[in-house]
Amino acid sequence: MKGFRVRTLVIIGAGFSGTACACQFLARCGDGWQVSVINASGPVARGLAYGTRSPLHLLNVPAGRLGMDPAQEGDFVRHLDETGHRYRASAFVPRMLYGEYLEQRLRQAADAHPGRLDIRTARVDAIERRLAGGFRLHLSGDATLDADAVILAMGHLSPVAPLPGLDALGAAYINDPWSGAVEHIGTDERVLILGSGLTMLDVVVDLARRGHRGPITALSRRGLLPRSHRAQDAPPATIPLDREALLQARSARALTRLVRAAVAQAERACVDWRDVIGSLRALTPALWQSLDEREKRRFVRHVRPHWEVLRHRTAPEPFNAMNALLQDGRLTVGAGRLRAAAADEGGVTVRWDDARRGPQAQQFDRVVNCTGPGHRIDAQRAPLLHRLLESGLMTQDPLKLGLMVDARCRAIDARGRSVDGLYYVGPLLRAQFWEATAIPELRKHAAVAVDSLLAAGG
Q1: Are residues 108 and 219 in the same domain?
Q2: Predicted TM-score (pTM) above 0.85
Q3: How far are the Cα atoms of 236, 237, 280 from residue 242, in angstroms, in the given order?
């Protein structure tokens, strides 16, 4: 047709968020769009979480609630049935199977829309606005790509060392537990894990699977361990919470008091505390936005560690495996502040202030950073994000938790204006919505971005 122009959407990142955006958009956009998915490295549709090959690394959400499109919640279970994996909707499934699901659905989307999905491996170094409209992407190797719209779908940022100078320990220090270096830990080596959350649990369970016999110590500021989901055979109960009272609290202290009261009331009615936390899930973004900057800082400093272990729970199987290691003494947990680490003849001597026993010093063969992904862009080697902030196309929140967007997931620039055609979907939405790391939230954010783009002229 004369005058017909195919528009281009570029999605940067091919983990869950990028895959969900691509599949949802292709299913609804019509013939007038070309979609390019650009992935800097690694396998497509895997990302940090689903690239693992350990069968003991399980999803933390039951399979029946993990369809990548919010309109098709049971799609993952259908995929499992189609591929010969017989799991109930209540099962906690190996994460690598979810990676296979994402990859297959992305390939199916490409097959269903021949010639309209381009997947390429490249690094995007910069994005600039074009005078004629849209954006120009500068790729590695001096290549450029023009786009009418861009969805940034980069996942978690790299872990940040919790103490300066740890890199000087060489091979004895593993900053990124997903780099593959954990696999080279010797059977009898003494291991210190910095952090006691879900990443620690993954590492400990995998070490045990591979026959590790040496002592393992997990150290974190508060020594809080992951909590477990209960068996999911019965659906969770919906707790009638006082929405208005929660929204009017407007302080971290008052919110904590109200949630504790709701848990106590549920327990008196023989209702599991997990159902209270689950009932808060849909309300959490509004509660976060009801806090001013000072109260957000208080929440992050004082409440966040406790909230994380209650809200982001693990499957029963790895939880039970961790408890077995605790009971036989192979795993110990400390609460305290890390002070120093230095290599010596006996390995690595680590010093910390124990919350109960005072100053401690102990030798280890390996130190593994399991404090989790970073969120401060200024602490990262992330050229694209740095340039987006420097150019004013995007902004961080005052707490440096992530990137600012509007209610339609459009980027907010340095002047506080929404940037038409530039979107972000991923865990850096924590700055705006707090809940931005689990699939049920991320797939909704992907749908919001796709809806916004289509409403703008798709």
Answers
A1: no
A2: yes
A3: 18, 16, 10
